[in-house]
Design brief:
single chain; 1 helix; alpha+beta; four-stranded antiparallel beta sheet
């Protein structure tokens, strides 16, 4: 029994260390909210020509800080920064989160032509 308890304690300690070191995903605050299908802590993109208010199903959701390269996103799309804690998101012309031209602050929406956009960054506050 002592070996089982010791192994369980070691596993719990290792799991806690992995979660603590990763830090990529944001923890949702108490009472978080989903906005038209976009969970708190995410930046979401709806399909081309779809109104989020009528169809709350974003097709792209990003939840970790850093850059995210886009693919197959053409024409006008709704984009929401539903992050919290004053985290921002940037729309960038180049892959890798470079040559950014627009910053979305917390709770900001934009209706944007994503054809020339190749990446989005989620920025720590």
């Amino acid at each position: 029994m002592r070996k089982v308890m010791s192994a369980a304690a070691a596993f719990a300690t290792a799991a806690t260390a992995v979660v603590t070191m990763s830090g990529a995903a944001q923890a949702a605050p108490a009472g978080d909210s989903t906005v038209y299908g976009c969970r708190s802590g995410n930046v979401c993109i709806w399909p081309r020509g779809v109104e989020p208010f009528n169809d709350p199903h974003p097709t792209v959701r990003y939840s970790s800080y850093g850059y995210h390269n886009l693919s197959n996103q053409y024409g006008d799309h709704w984009v929401l920064n539903n992050q919290y804690g004053d985290a921002t998101a940037s729309l960038c012309y180049n892959y890798g989160g470079t040559n950014c031209y627009e910053t979305l602050f917390q709770d900001d929406w934009t209706y944007e032509n994503l054809t020339p956009i190749n990446s989005i960054t989620l920025n720590r506050p």
